[in-house]
Amino acid sequence: EPEVTQTPSHQVTQMGQEVILRCVPISNHLYFYWYRQILGQKVEFLVSFYNNEISEKSEIFDDQFSVERPDGSNFTLKIRSTKLEDSAMYFCASRLGMAAFFGQGTRLTVV
Amino acid sequence: AQSVTQLGSHVSVSEGALVLLRCNYSSSVPPYLFWYVQYPNQGLQLLLKYTTGATLVKGINGFEAEFKKSETSFHLTKPSAHMSDAAEYFCAVSDRTGNQFYFGTGTSLTVIP
Q: Using CB atoms within 10 A as the burial measure, which of A27, A29, B8, B104 is most buried?
């Protein structure tokens, strides 16, 4: 069964460093998303992406964040200068119809 | 704008008992509604969805949910709980653009043997 895959599963980074979280959406899907879940809190929307541009973004998605679809298969989230409060589980999702399918997540720990 | 409220952050049921997880939504337009399950240290897995048509929808693992427009609810049920159902359950809503999915705060289900 097709699935969204995310790498790495865990990432530890020092505060102020740049990180890139990688996602391979389901191959025929057209809409892509990043969400995050701080430990013990709700799943929060970051950004949606369609037709090679951002469709919508939340207040969390400030200038420190960017997304890219560098080729036909990958979808990346970059955090330019990580903060302690960026520590969270980051989920990538994709959809073709109305249901979004999520990856297993990348646990980002900023120290 | 859409929002989701899940009543009860923790629910405990005995094995074999009925599971009822509550979800109410607010939406200015007819929404699409979803339930996702998250097992420990895993991602979000789609359980079921309502988009149009029959208001009672069946999902995986014996779960079902009923869209009740008059009550703005989309409660998740399962007739008989199994130990493997222990997980975090999230209700989500999106508008018809699908640009954003709004999640509830989640309900942690414990199944007691």
A: B104
Q: In the block, which residue shows the tokens 């208001």?
A: B55
Q: Per-residue pLDDT tens for A71-106?
A: 878 999 999 999 999 999 999 999 988 889 999 999
Confidence (pLDDT) at B29: 76
Q: For chain B, give the percent of residues with pLDDT over 70.
A: 100
Q: Which residue of B has its CA nearest to A100?
A: B46
* Mean predicted confidence (pLDDT) in A32-44: 91
Instruction: Report, in angstroms and rounded to the nearest whole number, the Rg of chain B calculated over CA atoms.
Output: 13
Decide: B104 and B22 in contact? Cβ < 8 Å. Answer: no
Nearest residue in B to A103, CA atom: B43
Tell me if chain B has a CB within 8 Å of the CB of A65.
no
Q: How far is A111 from chain B (nearest CA, A)?
A: 20
Q: Are A86 and A38 in contact (CB under 8 A)?
A: no
pLDDT band at B97 (very low <50, low <70, confident <90, very high): confident
Does residue A64 surpass a pLDDT of 90? yes
* B22 in contact with A, Cβ within 8 Å: no
A3 touches B: beta carbon within 8 Å? no
Q: What is the DSSP string of A11-63?
A: EEE-TT--EEEEEE--TT--EEEEEEE-TTS-EEEEEEEETTEEEEE-TT--T
A 34-53 residues inside an 8 A Cβ radius of B: 35, 41-45, 48, 50
